[in-house]
Amino acid sequence: MTLTLNGPLALIGAGKMGGALLSGWLAKGLDPKTVFVRDPEPAAEVGSLIALRGISLNLPLVDLAAKRPAVVLLAVKPQLMDIVLPELQPLVAPDTLFISIAAGTSLHRLKELLGGEMRAVRAMPNTPSAVGRGMTACYANALVSPAQRETANELLAAVGDVGWVESEPLIDAVTAISGSGPAYVFYLAECLAAAGEALGLTPALAMQLARATVAGAGEMLHQMPDDVTTLRKNVTSPGGTTAAALDVLMGEGGLSPLMRRAAAAARDRARELGS
Fold first, then answer.
1. Which of 160, 225, 248, 274 has a CB 3.0–4.6 Å from the CB of 134, allowing a cystine?
2. Rounded distance, CA 223 to CA 42, Å?
3. 107-141 burial string, b = 16+ CB within 10 Å, else e?
4. Distance between CA 47 and CA 216 in Å, rounded?
């Protein structure tokens, strides 16, 4: 289905995540003539895409405001929000939807920086969005209409799956699971490779096995309808090698309580950064 909007889209910030979203939108058929990007120094690959597709870059703000964007997506680094957002106050309009993917920036803070009430969605995408396999969780304030919520869903679904929470503080829990989660998986691959080396494999082969195993298992999760417990049990023969390993991982002090502590630490840090 071709991605269409009921007005122009302003993308504020053309770094890795902004670029991933832009690529996803264009791949879904969004008309590049309806996209306006603002970033003084876009990432090199994003700048090339902008030039290739003839997308407007750094149109003067007064001219951009005159086009009355239907959506303004904020892909600005959190540390720059205090500088960039006050400049965008002319874009605030009664029917304009703001979508923020800035980690740790609450909707209350957006309201302060943009100078008033606005229809706003706070979203937390993760880095697999760069390969179209992202996970984004969102929270919409009370001013967002059902149609605008669907618009946000379609825009963010261009780079992966989308879910919604009904309470903004739950975004911190989302950050702990899907936002930071890719790093946990990469570390699992590191540990798996290190374990292979300890068993006598060469570093190159151990890493090849770990990367392919994690990627392959992830693809099974993506493609197969079975729940994760069933997938695990399908690999585990009673009394076999996998069962022996799982006795360690699922034992007292094993992976489950460790992961709960890790996720809680990430959530607590997200709260600190957002306060």
1. 160
2. 34
3. bebbbebbeeebbbbbbbbbbbbbeeebbbbbbbb
4. 33
pLDDT at 176: 96
CA distance 44 to 15: 9
Alpha-carbon span 20 to 23, nearest angstrom: 5
Report domain extents, the chain.
9-168, 181-274
Q: Count the residues in the chain.
A: 275
How far apart are the two ends of the chain, measured CA to CA in Å? 40
Is the pLDDT at 275 greater than 80? The verdict is no
Quick count: other Cβ atoms within 10 Å of Cβ 242? 13
Q: What are phi and psi of 211, to 5 degrees?
A: -65, -45
pLDDT at 1: 67
Helix orientation angle between 181-198 and 203-223, rounded to the nearest 10 degrees: 140
CATH number of 9-168: 3.40.50.720
Task: Give one DSSP letter per residue of 135-158, joined into a string.
Answer: EEEEEE-TT--HHHHHHHHHHHGG
212 CB burial (10 A radius; 0-12, 13-18, 19+): exposed
Interhelix angle 228-235/203-223, rounded to 10 degrees, is 130
The architecture CATH gives domain 181-274: Orthogonal Bundle (1.10)
Per-residue pLDDT tens over the stretch 60-114: 999 999 999 999 999 998 889 999 999 999 999 999 999 999 888 999 999 999 9
Say if residues 96 and 118 touch (Cβ distance below 8 Å): yes
- To the nearest 10 degrees (0 to 180), the angle between helices 16-27 and 44-53 is 30
Find where tokens 């889209």 sit: 9
Backbone angles phi, psi at 134, to 5 degrees: -80, 170
